[in-house]
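Dear U.,

Please find below the material for section 3 of the report. The protein was modelled together with adenosine-5'-triphosphate; I have listed the sequence and SMILES used, followed by the predicted complex structure.
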Amino acid sequence: MSGPRPVVLSGPSGAGKSTLLKRLMKEYEGVFGFSVSHTTRNPRPGEEDGKDYHFVTKEKMQEGIDKDEFIENAEFSGNMYGTSKSSIEDVQAQNLICILDVDIQGVKNIKKTDLNPIYISIQPPSMEILEKRLRDRQTETEDSLQKRLEAARIDMELSKEPGVFDIVIVNDDLEEAYEKLKSVLIEEIEKVQDAQK
Ligand SMILES: Nc1ncnc2c1ncn2[C@@H]1O[C@H](COP(=O)(O)OP(=O)(O)OP(=O)(O)O)[C@@H](O)[C@H]1O
Ligand SMILES: Nc1nc2c(ncn2[C@@H]2O[C@H](COP(=O)(O)O)[C@@H](O)[C@H]2O)c(=O)[nH]1
């Protein structure tokens, strides 16, 4: 796979990955391309098929997995998620920095591939704040919220393991977290901008 170095954003559900990456993609329009994952979960209000996710049935997703169309896939909070090879190739064909938003299982599986991304973990300041953010977002049932909090506990432990992530950003103050994220990526951003001149 060629092009600028991709970026993997990971971290507990509700830590603020989408918030940060949407802001980054808006500020640096034409520099980043989002790798649109497949999922079997239902769309949330405002989410668009093909933009936020490819929303598919379990059968369709399994069919793609069986045909080896995914570089990684995982079950998270009772739903299937996966990164198709074509979602990455589509972005890389445009010479953009490909951003992947995946859970910790995705990180581990991507490490077995030749993608060679920058691995960034976005962490919440505490479990209490994470729970409040998830509840305030009003996207989860009590059952899915509890599953996400359980996955978050595991994620927060694993993110402390040395060598898993290139950088761990604690998203307490949004401005500070965003500035930190930009500072990690500025070299790659400038390379893409220079190539576009
Ligand atoms: N620094 C912050 N301070 C307060 N609220 C925040 C902060 N960052 C994000 N939020 C809010 O927390 C909620 C969760 O953020 P977001 O949806 O970006 O998380 P996520 O990591 O992408 O979650 P998921 O993995 O479930 O998609 C959102 O309602 C968002 O507006
Ligand atoms: N392993 C993968 N994880 C993914 C992928 N796309 C998203 N995710 C992760 O799932 C959870 C939940 O996401 P949500 O949109 O339902 O809140 C979150 O941690 C994402 O990072 C994927 O393709 N592979």
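For the text of the report, you could mention the following: The chain is about 45% helix and 20% strand.

Regards,
Y.
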